[in-house]
Specification:
Blueprint lengths: L3 H4 L5 H9 L6 H18 L12 H16 L5 H18 L30 H8 L4 H13 L3 H5 L3 H11 L1 E4 L9 E4 L5 H8 L14 H15 L4 H16 L4 H4 L5 H10 L3 H19 L4 H8 L1
Antiparallel strand pairs: 1-2
Helix pairs in contact: 2-3, 3-5, 4-5, 7-10, 7-12, 9-10, 12-15, 14-15, 15-16
Length: 311
Amino acid sequence: MSSRNFGLGSRDMKFAAGLLLSKLDISFSSRSGIGDRWNVFVDWAKPQGVNKMEKIDRALVVRYGGYLQTLVAKGDMKPATAQVYVSAVNTVMDNATGHRWESVSPTKDCGISKRSHVATESKAMPEAKHQAVQAKVDDRVAAMLELQRTFGLRFKESALLDAKAALKEADAKGTITLTSGTKGGRKRTVPVPRETLAVLAAAAKFQDGRSMVPKAMTYAEFRKACYNQAYAAGFGFHQERHHYAQRRYTELTGVPSPIQAGWAGRQRIAGMAAYLGVSKAVATKIDTTARLTLSKELGHNRIEVTRVYTG
């Protein structure tokens, strides 16, 4: 094995990163996205004499971030895009160096404008597409999509869910407690109306082990197989979670989510007030209360994150 590029198996920085990313416990779409962004960085770095990973240091990445910010300033790139390009370099270098890399902050170190957490277009999977997708994937994945759409689960949470135990808990308490696969290992409770028990019951039929992961497969193997199906069918699992968030916002407030109603930014409260026939103060309270509830159900516990889903 070549010692160049931290012994990753290739003297080419792009190919070496591809080999590295293929071994990480991340989805196919994440590997592809990080790889594409890393390749952009490599193309920028090579004219500056950087032809191997060992020559990459924080100062170089900070300069790269500064270059991206010039594109942002000219309107050629969105702040959010510039930030994830720098993050991709951090991800590759952190793993290539055995986690000895000191991460570069896109905003603090590179001066890239802070991105807005308010979504401007819906990423929720429409019902028609949901139905079409259901017909393209196998029954187990179809059941997991229903879990994600109905209860707002992340992919990993739906895969590691003990559906049989969850069905019993939901039948008795009207809620399910999520512990496996949650972000940061944080436990949370999600409401389960009686009419949605059938979703858990359907998932439980496919459970042949301790979770939705087939007994004969590891989680990593199952995840890869699921994402291959998603890629072939042309959808992203997180779209179902966006649908849940927008539906729940409507259930909690009695109004469409701002992104569905076209109430962008500061128009949100005025739009809600007019829709409900209440004052802006009352609308603000309704919106805030709903977002607090929704943020807990999504496992974020931060109101501003709900705007990524609902606007």
